[in-house]
Amino acid sequence: MQTNRVLAVLTRLSRVLEAANDTELARMLGTTSSTISSWKARNSIPYAKCEEIAEDRSINLDWLLTGNGEMLRGVTCQPSPSNLSPKEEALLTMFNELSEDDQREICRLAEDKKRMRDMSKQIEELQAWFEEFKKAH
Questions:
Q1: pLDDT band at 3 (very low <50, low <70, confident <90, very high)
Q2: Which of 6, 32, 73, 107 registers the highest number of CB atoms within 10 A of its CB?
């Protein structure tokens, strides 16, 4: 990571953790201020630490690392209340009655399910392409 990218990631981490300064950020990350300084000097932040924070806080890892996309994962998971079917309303009511951690887990599972469905579709498309390629050659 370039220095400005490292500083940007640290700024986003501070925002997520609501840390006012590097000392507070270090404490919240379970590390020391000198470690934060070392990350800046090396122009590198441990990916595993970013991944852990993103998972724990339901933060979009792409947003945390690049600033692109929505900050929160699952923000598209909730439909507009104006056009919900009775089934969707019942599901949303149950969802809203759950704890924040349970809501995050449900959104994570839904995202995983969608990702798996998308990957299956891509595999099917690749298999079809490969079959056509074999026939042509």
A1: low
A2: 73
